[in-house]
Every structure is written in C-alpha cells, then in structure tokens.
C-alpha cells in the first residue's frame, strides 16, 4: 500500500538559490494542476508592464535637462515614423531621419570622433531609467582619451540603424546608440548599446557590436560604461567593429 501511495511523487526541489541569480520564472509551485493564483497574477502584471513599456514615451525633456546640467549639448531628432503604431509596423521607417531632422543635423559641426545617440526603441522606460547613468560615466572617459564628441542626438521613434545615418551626416568615426530593448516577461526596462565604426547608411548587424541587458538586476551602468569604452578603444585602434571585433573585456 505504501508503494502505491508514493507512485508519481517527486521530491520537492529548492529553487531559491536559482531565483537569486535570475528573474526568470522558475520554481513557481503549484495549486493542484495549476500554478498558484499569486504567480498567475504576477504573469499578467508582467505582460501588462511589457505592453506599457512599448507605449511609454521617452522623457526627452528630462533627459535633455540632465545632459545640460552635465554641460553636454543635445539635439532632438525624429525618424520618419508618424506614430507608435507605424513604428511597430514599419521598422524600416524607424531607421531613417525625417527631412526636417536631416536638415537640423546637417547644420551641426562635422568630423567628430564619436557621436552618442539615444533612442526610445521598443522600451522608452529603459531609456528613462538607464541612459543618463551610463552617459555620465562614459563621457568623461571619452573626453580623457581626447576624442571629440558631437552633440548627443536624442531620437524619437528610432531603430538601431538610425545611428548609421546620423554618424554618416556628422562624418563621425564611430557612432553609439543607447536604445530600449524589446521588453519581455522578466524585464521591461532593459537597455542595449550598439557601436559602429565608420557608420553609414546600409550597414547590417554584422557591422555592429552590442552590449545588452543594461538595467537594475542586469548589467550595471558602471560595467556597461567600462565595456563600451573598451570597445571604443578597440574599434578606434583596429579601425573595425562588428564580427571582426571581439569583446574580450575582463570585468
């Protein structure tokens, strides 16, 4: 009888040590054949937060003010996208500046070493929470290396490749773009940084280096700034970026 009672039973696993290492949904437990009500509600909340992150606007005025207080000039630019719905449906338009922004940028000083772009991407929340913290740590490193900086470009409704056009117009040696990453059910506030040497329109993803998952609970602003500066040094020295440039930074 005792053997029959134990058929199908498995020892309970302790997932607490794994939960300290990841925000992924593990060890949720169960209530009968389903998950507990609390976890079910948490899942629905995470889904709602991910959707909100996509539609939350970038706090461009607040970011511009923070940059100004740090003595960093900025320029607000817009892609060819008209609204958020079109942004989601037409990623190609998010890669290009509209006519007015192209004209505005054409009047800026050319031939800089580095241009830093900031775009809302698929999570403006990520930009609102993380962008300035990285920039304020990264810019002094760039300045100490005696590299010239263009105006910081704040791009509304932008995709990653829009930094290629910006860099091309400004004739920059290297472009960086800080952009909100696609929100998931574990994190809606994750920011990525993409680096391109000799940016120009038409480049593909293999020409870029990426650092992702910059957020509280992910890669810290300090480590992200150190890693991206390392990549800038390598890209400038080797005159290459993308698949030909390996990230061998030791944290």
Automatic annotation (TrEMBL):
Coiled coil: none
GO MF, one example: ethanolamine ammonia-lyase activity
Cofactor note: Binds between the large and small subunits.
Main location: other
Protein's UniProt keywords contain Lyase: yes
Cofactor(s) annotated in UniProt: adenosylcob(III)alamin
Bilayer-crossing regions: none
Chain residues that bind adenosylcob(III)alamin: 160, 181, 210
Cellular localisation: Bacterial microcompartment
The reaction(s) this protein catalyses: ethanolamine = acetaldehyde + NH4(+)
Recorded superkingdom: Bacteria
Pathway where this protein functions: Amine and polyamine degradation; ethanolamine degradation
UniProt cross-references to NCBIfam families, sorted A to Z: PRK05465.1 (NF003971)
Protein name, per record: Ethanolamine ammonia-lyase small subunit
Organism: Pedobacter frigiditerrae
